[in-house]
Amino acid sequence: MKRKSFAAVTSQQVAQLAGVSQSAVSRSFTPGASISPATREKVLKAARELGYRPNAIARSLNTARSRIIGVVISYFDNQFYPQVLEALAQRLDTLNYHLLLFVGDRDGNVDRIFDQIMQYRVDGIVLASVTLSLDLSEECLAAGIPVVLFNRSEESGMASSVNSNNEAAARQIAEFLMAGEHKRYAYVGGVADSSVNIARQRGYLAALAEQGIHDVQVVNGNYDTRQTIRAAYSLFSTPPVPDAIFVANDHMALTVMDVARYEFGLQIPQDLSVIGYDDTGPSGWPSYALTSVSQPVQEMVGAAVELLMKQIDSDTIEPAQITVPGMLVVRHSARRPRSGIIEQEGVSLFQPQEAK
C-alpha cells in the first residue's frame, strides 16, 4: 500500500485558528517563554485540532541553537554508562534539550566520528569513556562548542571534565585492604593509558608503597570480558596467588570473582578479597556483594550539565575540572578490617580513623 502524504501544518495556520499572532504560537512551544496561560491553551487547542507539531530543525535555523547535546560512549558492557546515559537524558529533558547518542570505538578515541557529530549542529558534547585529540579540542574551542569529558580527563585542559576522586578513592581501597591484613596484592587495570586507569593505578600503588609494599602484580583487562578472564588466569595460575585485588571497574571485578570461584575454587573473601569501582547494580546482588567505590552518578551528571549550560548560555568557553567525591561501599567480597567501618543510612562505608 502506498504511503499517504500530508501537507505540513504551519504555525501561521495555528495562529489563524487560535486568533493569535504567529509569535504567540512560537512562544507557546518554547519552555519558559512569556505567554499567558489562557493564550497558550488556545494555541495548544488549535494545534491539536490541526495536528501541528513544531519543526525543531527549522527552529534551530532561526535561533542558531539545535538544543541537541551529542553524547559519545564507546561501550556498554560496564553498566555504569547506561546509568549515566539515563540520568543525562532525564536531566537534559528538564531543560528542553535532547540527547543524541554516538557509539565510539573501543580504543576510546572519538576522532573517527567527530565529523558525524558536527553535522548535527550540536550545542555541546559529552564524551563518556572516550577522549578527544588535541587538534579536535582546539576545533571545538574555535567553533564555540563546549565539550565535557565524563569519567575521563585530558592533559591540555582545553576541555572541561567531571570525575570522581579516582586517585584518592584508590588510595582508600589500598588502606582498606592493608587494614584487613592482606599479604599479596594485585591490580587489574582497564585500558592502560586511559586517564581514570592511570589515576586509580597510581593512587593504589602509591598508598601501598608508602607502607613498604612494592611487590604488586599488575595486569590489564582493558575493560573487556575476555581479556579480563585471561588477566585473571595469569594471576591465579602461578604462585604466589594474590589474596587482595583491586579491579579498575565493577564489570571486570565480577569477572575476576567468577574466574576465582568457578575456575580455581577460591573462596571469597576467605581466600581472596576483591574490590571494584563504580558500584553498579550487579555489585549489590547477594551472589556478588562486591565492595566497590560508588561513583555518584546524579551529582556527576548534574555537574556536567551545569557546565554545559553555563558555557552555552554565556557563549564563552572557560574549561573547568570538577571532582565529585565517591564512597567506598563495604559488602562481603573483601575481608573487613577490625575498625573504620561505619553505617550510614543502611549502607556500610569505610572511613579510616584519620578521615573522621
Automatic annotation (TrEMBL):
Pfam families associated with the record: LacI, Peripla_BP_3
Keyword annotations from UniProtKB, A to Z: DNA-binding, Repressor, Transcription, Transcription regulation
GO molecular function: DNA-binding transcription factor activity; transcription cis-regulatory region binding
Official protein name in the record: LacI family transcriptional regulator
Organism: Pluralibacter gergoviae
